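Mods, move this if it's the wrong board.
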Amino acid sequence: MTRDFPNTEVGFIGIGKLGFPLAKRLSESGLKVNAYDIQEKYSKKCDGTNITFIKKLEDITKTSDIFFLCLPGPDEIKNLLLARNDFVGLMKKNTFIVDHSTGDPRMVETIVKELKSKSIRYIDVPVSGGVEAAVTGKLTALVGSKKTYFDLIRPYLNRTCSTIVHTGEPGTATLVKLLNNLACFTLDQVLAECLTIGRKAGLDSDLMYQALRSSAIGSGGNINIRIPETFMKNDFNPRFTLKHARKDVGLALDLAKDLEVPLRIVPLCLEEIDEAISRGFADKDASVAMSIQEERSNVRVRPY
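Not the wrong board. Structure tokens:
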């Protein structure tokens, strides 16, 4: 433990599907964990563990100077931290609140300002990886805070997460988490369109999915290899040309049309590719089509 947290007792509020495995890992690492949840039925989860379930919210404020939150969303965060109740008011000065919830980044500034006036330090630390990763300790923690606060809470995060990323000032971590989920769930829908084309064309579902997992999409080739070396470096020397990308996407869409598979998202991708080609980008790397969105948004992601 650090000098700033001399005791080994922490509070944890919200022990649902994600919160409980986080609290359990903290308890298994040698910390005494006092937990609270508005749904008292969750107290049964604590049976046979080193977690003590506290029935009254006001009672848990007396137990520690660091609290972890894992709540469903912005409304619950607001009701706990900004509503007129005794939760924050009863806390010790300089208490840390480490918020694992995925809330609204626009609200974080308000929370930080309000809690600072009461000598309470708030850090947004949403986690990524899902319940399975929470159980095994393989989560990624995204931390929005001052660097000094980041260094202070990192020993605690090391007990629950395998990867810890400092994203900048408060609110930045929540924003990155939302962008991550936006990309993930949008990709789900694109995959649904691809899988239905394949299935209607007669492919075996399991074999098709395994093949995709073993290919570039499954290994994260785009986000881990190609885009960092092209778009993010403003280097469009072709690894895979835009005209060849257009050929492949076009062939897949032609097949979908023949099979009468309705598509809503993928055709938009083809429109972006065609727009980029119309600007003379056909022989550049396929990632150059991403620059169309930059221009439309009047913002620059790439370096100049």
